[in-house]
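Re: beginner question about structure tokens

> Can someone show what the tokenized structure looks like for a real chain? I only ever see the sequence side.

Sure, here's an example I had lying around. Input first:
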Amino acid sequence: MKKIAFIIVRYGENINGGAEVHCQMLAERLLPYYEVEVLTTTIRAFNHPDQDYTEGVSSWNGVTIRRFKPQPIDQEQFRPFRKKYKTARRIRQYLKKLNLLRAASFLHPEWKSGIENERPFYESTATHAPGLLRYIESHKAEYAAFIFANFYTPQAVLGSVVAPEKSLLIPMAHPDKPLYYCINAPMFTRVRHIAFNTEAERQLCRSVFGRFLAPNSIVGCGIEMAPEAEWSGVKAKYELPDEYVLYLGRVSKAKVDKLLPYFLRCKAKYGGDAKLVLVGGFENEIRKFDSPDILFTGYVSDEEKTAIVRHATVMVNPSPMESLSLLMLEGMQSRIPLLVNGRSKVMKDHCRLSGAGLWYNNGRDFRKKLHRLLSDPELRRTMSEKGPAYVREHYDWEIIIPKLRTLIESI
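And the corresponding structure tokens:
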């Protein structure tokens, strides 16, 4: 049986990030066909070294996990590079804004002057694990494929070019600053294949790396929802209302800073019984509004999460940065209408192609669209019928796994 390895910064039980769950589902789904390993760091929670895993080899759900301790290069030594590493990235972002970056990449796919400053920056980040990179170099002959999840980590940026001829990249890219670093070009142009989640993600990367973008295709990822917990108990435990708008995910400033006032302004203008329920880990930087119309549950079990999703009136995703949004697919599968940030082309395309949701462009648009969804049961019913068919057609495991196996076997 061939041996393959997924490479990601964090991996293990109770790590609920989107990229980590994505990687876990793919790794476990490939166990019937390959000897599957994960090469990762000892990090369990960012910025909490006291919670780290032990370095070494372990196993979880049948997958062998090899953990390497992060050892970033002394940041003081590379302070000059940390001041310079943004320059080339800003130039590339500006060219992208002018729609010139694709043409510039045609002429100069790799900007070596930028890489000279960016590599020390990546090597000085808190997640840099040189032992992991050395392991790939010394053991690359043992593996049929290395599958790198998340493009912006030191593991992907530096590791994917160690054995590019047998490296697959699942970039999970969105139009954020890290995409425009020069050091990304070798990764995006030299790997054996890039497995995108959506067409919007692929077009974004083509606009950055031009014709030198490595061979690629749309692979995507399926979803797995735990059995539903008994609803009356969940409803009582978290004091959930009969009608609620659900936000699911990390409750951080970047994610929900505008959502909370948007929702309260909608309530002030239109009234109604619906409340906003936020499910997920809460970051201290968030200002909690003292309002009976906003409820925070904190972490819930997977079974409780399934119940909360399936009884929502509307699901909302305010993030402008998504490469797929598994949570959005879970809502569609559960027949829940969606309202998403129109700045995310990925989520906007999901709604446009499926007919299972609406998107908003600003606060006023949010209020109008949310009121429309909450006040029109027939519209919600029509949308709810379209979600499962879309997920089944594009993100069913019986479609995803054969695509990924074909890529692995092609190496």
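Each token stands for a local structural state, so reading them left to right follows the chain. The mean pLDDT is 90.
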